Amino acid sequence: MMRLDLSAQWYWEQDDSLRFVKVEAYDRRQCPIGDTLVGKQWRQIPAANQGEADWRHHFELLSGHEPFFNFEIEVTEAPGQSIWLSLSGVPVHDASGNFNGYRGVGKEITSQKENQATIASLALIDQLTGLSNRRHLLDRLNFARLGGARHQGFGALIFVDIDNFKSFNEAVGHAVADILLVEVAARLTACMRDCDTVARMGGDVFVVLATDMGTSTEYASQKTQRIVSKIVAALGAPFTPAMDIALTVSPQAPRFTASMGICLFQGTETSVEDLMKRSEMALRQAKQTGRQGIRYFDPLVEAQVKQRSRMETELHVALSGDQLRLYYQPIVDLQKKIIGYEALVRWQHPSLGLVAPGTFIAIAEQSGLIVPMGEWIIKQACDQLVHFQSNATTRQLTIAVNLSAHQLAQPDIADVISRIIRSSGAPPQQLKLEITESMLLTDIDKTIEKLDALSALGIRFSLDDFGTGYSSLSYLKKLPLSQLKVDQSFVKGLLTEPVDAAIVKTIIQLAKSLGMSVIAEGVELEGQRKVLSDMGCREFQGYLFGKPAPFQDQGL
Ligand code: C2E
Ligand code: MG
Ligand code: MG
């Protein structure tokens, strides 16, 4: 290996006027232009790749008698025929220190250079379709921004996503699905001008970048609309024979449609990254509307998305930085005596003040942060229950804690909760967990298993917001539920809407016949409490008895 490497190199010497005086190769074939170099000065080498400034830089090194390494030159022998050389050299001095020239080694690197060029083109091209890839698109987009800035021109960035591609891919397999992608690529390319860019981002997402769309918003929008219609028509056209053959493999040869997310831009106002995000965001919205959705980027939606992601970051800080508070709202019996509390989380935000769970629970759910947050909440509630145990007047009090869907979906949720109970020493029969009907929609058998495990410990379950979901009544008897919680929307209409009154009455009767207790939430008026108790409800919660508050404010 070593010898080969050495033999690939050749040796050279230059005199003090930087003229090649000697070129020696182990094998002459290693240095096909050695003879041409001898007698030539550096400046006379026809190096196609080195411009004026490059040479100046190189000569500065040489006049300082500095060594140089891997100086690459492209020597053109005949038009279209060039050889790449890489030269390294060190200055030579005589015994008294006078500069005598340079000597060094050279190497031909033509094939290496050719490989690099291929790699560079591969790096910019999507291998399946031959379209630009993401990297190339980003380059082109940046270029389009800069170009647009010069003459105030608009551009359009259009994300195109094939509807239901995932299920098609699963049905027919990758090989056939790939044929579709190649076909889509060809159709998109045919829709666009040569100066536009069509790229594939991977999967079934394509991006079209159109530039030179005029200088007025109106004109740019019209033009974009025309491109969009063209794309819709192109993708909806009958299949080519190749596609037809491929699709006979699939029993349900579908017709293809696409959804599009569009963002117009003018000059360098918006960064490449943000333009991509904007089109992606518009595409996501377009997909929500079902097939063939077309959406333009909407700054209002962007503001919401940004606000959400800011809040998500801040929620991490909230959890680790002690900004969460557990508030407790009293639950009373027929005599209005407090029999327990519902724990309701709050966020003491450094600048926004006290934030209600409606603003952040959903974000915590989506980010998965609800899992550690939920554990913290249960732990707090358990510590409070332990505290209650120390006093005879509070020993019987229960605490209800809301579980979120994501929390209940955790495979180890039963273990986690029983561990918290064990380590805190809280009496499990005083803990109530509130779940909602929507949580029962997925994986009901697993859910039943988890609830059974927890109820075996003595924990009770209440079905929150009852009446607003779609739970099947047959589930109700399979689940270890001890209570139905009438949703506050029905309590609200109790005195004025006969339908609400009828629903509440039915829920109370249903609970009775299933052997469960009933609690009504959102009770604000004495009249509501009276009607509820007449109907047979025995537990109440609402502003009439107390708002959620920290325990120190409730004298406990
Ligand atoms: P929820 O579990 O149904 O809680 C009842 C909500 O009604 C609470 O709102 C409570 O403050 C409010 N409320 C109570 N009495 C009245 C009343 O008389 N009138 C009116 N208008 N409202 C009343 P909050 O605290 O804003 O909580 C909203 C929802 O956020 C809760 O609904 C629950 O689904 C969720 N949540 C609250 N805390 C937690 C928690 O610790 N974990 C989880 N996963 N979710 C929580
Ligand atoms: Mg609740
Ligand atoms: Mg509720």
Structure description:
The structure is a single chain. The chain is of the alpha/beta class and 556 residues long. Helix content is 44%, strand content 23%. The chain has helices at 2-7, 34-37, 52-63, 110-124, 134-151, 165-172, 174-191, 217-236, 241-248, 272-288, 299-320, 357-367, 370-389, 405-409, 413-424, 444-456, 473-478, 488-492, 498-514, 526-535; strands at residues 9-14, 20-25, 68-78, 81-93, 99-108, 154-162, 197-200, 205-210, 258-266, 294-296, 324-332, 338-349, 353-355, 398-402, 431-436, 460-466, 483-486, 517-520, 539-541. The strands form 3 sheets. Strands 11-12-14-15-16-17-18-19 form an 8-stranded mixed barrel, surrounded by 4 helices. A 5-stranded antiparallel sheet has the order 2-1-5-4-3, with helices on both faces. The longest helix has 22 residues, at 299-320. The termini are far apart. It binds ligand C2E and magnesium ion (2 copies). The site of one magnesium ion (MG) has 5 residues, from strand 16.
